[in-house]
Design brief:
The protein contains ten helices and 14 strands. By secondary structure, the chain is of the alpha/beta class. A seven-stranded mixed β-sheet has the order 9-8-7-10-11-14-13, sandwiched between helices. Strand 7, helix 4 and strand 8 form a beta-alpha-beta unit. Helix 3 packs across helix 4. The chain is globular. The two termini are 35 Å apart.
Amino acid sequence: MDVDKGSERGDVGLQACEGKVMRTSCPWCGFKEKRFLIIDEGVPVVACVNCGIAYALVIPTLEAIRRYYTEQFSDERHWEVVLSSARPWLHRRLLSRIMHYRAQGELVDVGCSFGHFASMARQAGYKVVGVEISEPAARYARTRMGLSVHIGTLEEAKFNDESFDVVTLIDVLEHIAEPAKTLREVRRILRHGGLLVLRVPNFKFHWIKTLLLRATKRKHFIGLDSHNHINHFTVRSLTEGLTEMGFKILEVRPGVPNIYGRRFFDALRIAYWAVALLVSAVFKWQIGNSIEVFAIKV
């Protein structure tokens, strides 16, 4: 395959066909050369030979994504129960770490969903704005949470330059067709020294899990989830890309797990997270199922 780099990092070649898009270059660095990894849930997944991220080769168009999340989040009562039970433990610990770096200021939560984290940040004293592509979720965040939420993508919100002290993307970047483009927009709207907070699945963890599931023929368990997660980041690919885009990495750590109210499994998740934190602190290895990155604009 030919190697070719876009005019800017992550300029993605796309070929659209019937609600689907074929990626012709890496969504993170723009290179075309890639190697095949796996067919995951019917989706071909490849790895960029330049930056190392894995990505779904065929993805939904933006309009298909809008329709999907509108339908997915139409049952507000269901998602209120799910998110209010699974995420508060995560949100409190993530917010505590954010406050360690930026105790106050203007914060935009990109992919704010129903607004639970944004509401918690507002209660902590931040001036908060949300961005959400799902109209039902954004409506809930507006009417039930009392938040200011832009419906659409971050680029469509058209914020002014250097408008925010903190930008959060919690479990968002893995869903975005052009993640490098979104990060350039994040850098534009962040003030100098402003804080970027990212949380994404840890590709190495989920790759090993996928291979183990296939080896044991446990097809009903989710592996890479490439219908929903169209970008798969390693610590190296994520941090090197952010550095090239003009961010300084402050901290990389295992992501806080979701807690679902099932004591035994929740205890296992917390115990594994504690082990992952220890391994990260001692050996600088990231063995958690997700990665959290804290970085500043320089």
